[in-house]
Every structure is written in structure tokens, then in C-alpha cells.
């Protein structure tokens, strides 16, 4: 019973969402259990046909055996087919469970499985209440008829639509921040008390976030110089490529000026040496 009742046709655990027919599922689970009881009632090694299963189904599942059986004229009551201690077409050596015992076991079985069925019905009703936030159809129709004038007023004045849209956004933000659906799971009164205690802090938190976002926005003119300065600092901080020399320009210019001065001084020395060598050659 637990296997058929708590699992679907794909052997997956059932989730009672409100769409399942608990009456049909319970009937199928009890039919599978009664079929197993009919198998365990007697030994059938010779595979001869018998009426154990049909008798159990007609007496315990359908409940039509008493109406279809003939009445005893002397007593005036219907004869219970499960009141005997023997099965028809089954030898006493192959009997494992008597009809009277089967009836007693079935009564005990139904009493023990009622709790499982009740829990499934309760879970289904709870799921319907948690997920059904819409009013009934007659209330929606009544609001549509009585609010026709207000609806036409909103169409004529689009400013009201903007106000309603802003109010909807604020209410949606409050709904998400306060998690109203989770607060009302434990009841109406605890939910109202919890929401009333969180209402003002949530509004202050939303106002603070809006103020921070408004202060964080900067004009594009003020951001452009910062971007240029950042790009210049990044350009100065980046190392030179591998193919270029790593010597700065100031050192290169100093090296060039020093080399030019050295070249000029060496040229003057050569001119002086030549001038001194010429008189020596003439005197000799």
C-alpha cells in the first residue's frame, strides 16, 4: 500500500500539489494490497483456478457481495462469504489464511492506513492554501462590475496609471524584502505581528538604498578628467616593450651631450699637437 500510494507510475515520490485524485490513488493501493492478500491466502502449486481473489474483492473492496447473495428465508439475513474457515476449490492442506482471518486482517489494514490517507489530504489542502492567493471567481467578477467607472477614469487620466505603477513597484519591493508569503505560513495573526514589526525598518532600508544610489551617480563631465588622468598614469606605469630600450630619455640626452663635449675636446687636443709638431720639424 505504501509503495503504490506514495509513488507514481514512474516510481517517483508523490508530491501532493492538489491535482492528484486521492480517492482513486487510495483505491488502487488497496486493490494492490488485496491482490497480495489473495496470493498469500493459499498455496497454488498445481495452478488450478480458484475464486479467492474474486471473493475477496467482491466482499472487501466492492461491498456488493451481501446484496448479490441469496437470503436465508428462515433467518432473513444475508450470508457472509468470509464467515467460513475454508476456501472453495482449495484443499485444507493448501490453506494458509482462512476467510475469517482475511476479513480481520483487512479491517486492521484499513484502520492503519487511514492515517496515511488523512496526512495526504491535509498536505494537499495546505498546498492549495499556500499557493492560492487569488480571490474566488465571483469576487473577481464583482470587482470588475463595480469598478468599471474607476477603470474608465484611469484610462482617461494616464497620470493615475503612473502613480499606480510606482505604488506597485514599491509594494513589490516590500513584498520581496519582507517575504510576506513565508510570514503567513504559520497563521494570520503571527504573520500580521511579524509584518508590523518589520514594516518601518524595511521602508527605512529602501529609502537609504535609494539615497545611496542617488548620491553614487556622478556627471559625465567630472568622470572624463579622471579617466584621462587614470589613462596617463597607467601609460607612465606600464613597462616598455621587450624590443625597446629601457633607458629613459633624460639619460640618453645626457649621454649625447657628454659624447659631443668629449669629441670637441679630443679635436682641440689634436689641433694643438699638430701645431707643436710643425715648428719642431722646421727647426730640425
From TrEMBL:
Regions that span the bilayer: 159-176
Domain Sey1/RHD3-like three-helix bundle as annotated: residue spans: 1-213
Family matches, as Pfam families: Sey1_3HB
Biased composition (Polar residues): 224-236
Compositionally biased tracts (Low complexity): 244-266
Keyword entries, A-Z: Membrane, Transmembrane, Transmembrane helix
Chain residue ranges for the region called Disordered: 214-284
PANTHER family reported in the protein's UniProt record: PROTEIN ROOT HAIR DEFECTIVE 3 HOMOLOG 2, PROTEIN SEY1
Protein name: Sey1/RHD3-like three-helix bundle domain-containing protein
